[in-house]
Amino acid sequence: MKITFLIAFAALFCSFTHADDLQILRHWMSAATVSDEAVNAYTLDSCFQITPIPDAIFSRMQGKSYKKNCTVPRSSLRYLRVLHRNVEGKAQLGEIVCNESIAADLLDIFRQLYQKGYKIERITLIDDYNADDETSMRANNTSCFNFRVVSGTTKLSKHAQGLAIDINPLYNPYIHLNNGKVEPTTGKPYATNRAKLRNTKVPIIDANDLCYKLFIQHGFKWGGAWRTVKDYQHFEK
Ligand SMILES: [Zn+2]
Q: Residues whose CB is under 5 A from ligand 1 (ion)?
């Protein structure tokens, strides 16, 4: 009798949490985590979608990633819903703004990364960090579109067109080889001895990494292969 009651209670509890997770998925609450059961019920296709930039997202971007002098029309950008495995292995909701020309590539890459259990800490819009790259990188936030110049120059970055993406930027920092500067500054523990870090299960991007392989297969270039800087987090087309 007692056991039947416990089972019934557990089933009821599960169906409640399941319903909550479905609400999170329906409203696409970025950075929230959900159960695998809820993902299955909602379907993987619904979790990986490309749309034009919705009004609510466009207002979130104003004066941040989409600055007043932005030369890229809204119509050239796309909003992506993606799912990823966070560092604890839980299914987490992500969102990306990118150029329409790489939207299908990113959707395919992130779907494969999710299905293969690749760990990404967070994928949310850089606008949540006031479009400040250093703050977003310190939060290990994966992001793409941001109308800005290349760090330390006046040249527009590929991120300004939504044609570049930074993956797990804390674990994969940007290193200026001429002066040893590391971005984010908190990424220093991940700047050297990277091969050793891989053995500690930190998702380090190198030539053996799944993320690297998928981006290269899709025709992207990797910042970790550059000579004057090592931008391990960066892929661009
Ligand atoms: Zn980058």
A: 164, 166, 234
